[in-house]
Amino acid sequence: MHYKKVNSIKSTPVERYSMLLVDPVIEMPKNAKKSKNEKSLFHVALTATDAPYSKWQCRIMYYWYKKKKNLPGSEMGKFTRILHSGSPDNLMDEIPTFVVDPLPPGLDRGYVVLNRPWAFVQWLEKATIEEEYILMGEPDHIFINPLPNLARGGYPAAFPFFYIKPTENEKIIRKFFPEEKGPVTNVDPIGNSPVIIKKDLLEKIAPTWMNVSLKMKNDPETDKTFGWVLEMYAYAVASALHGVQHILRKDFMLQPPWDKETGKKFILHFTYGCDYNMKGELTYGQFGEWRFDKRSHLQGPPPRNLSLPPPGVPESVVTLVKMVNEATANIPDWDTK
Asked: pTM to 2 decimals?
């Protein structure tokens, strides 16, 4: 199978996302395949702040990690929330947590995500990590199926994002990935999460990822063009600078409301708002009569027992709400932490 490039991107989110879905998965090199009985555990790691918005998402993610970790097919190892607020918080006893320092004041210039590569650099240097592989996740990830190790040796596994387009931004990419390093197609259309990667590879990439992120943020043209996905481009470029290319797995993750079925995918990413009228019709871009959007809960957790969406709403959105409801019903002190 081969990766088919999209030459033109249509205007609406639905059209852009659907164009990604027709592409097959990039096949891993045959010499990188592993036997069925070989088990390669990976450490599940995510970066987080001590803000209420981050905390409630981490609690839901950790709940579903525990539910799926020991099921058949899972190769999940231990779990770490890398807390880059610089001091312990009230979830230390609930979620395995490693505290690291934030960037010096002002260095992130209001773009808090720049703390992510710096957090991984510190964690990799200071923590004892038993597993050979690491999954870089995010608080708004929910494990919907047991996750195997999708990486193969020196080939990490990543999810391809339709909006990460290195070839269409060659002029900017070349500021950080010079021609002598190879063609721009060596820069994968990915971010740092979800990625499953060998620990020793990430130890090499992470400092470069941090430095490229800061350089991109300090370049006005790059900052304006890449915006909120700048740090994702930085990881893709940093990997390419080290000669690392990823196996692209579209089954790694789904993103409601654009992905309508959970199927055999592994992670549900609830980054997009889900807005519907009572006929079950998507009203993306305007508040729906029924809605679930994580950004509605910036100051504290969503309430328990959220109302289910109306008939006709895709299964993926229904599953999201049901999984949030199950987690909040079973996590102690949900409304008070």
From this structure: 0.90
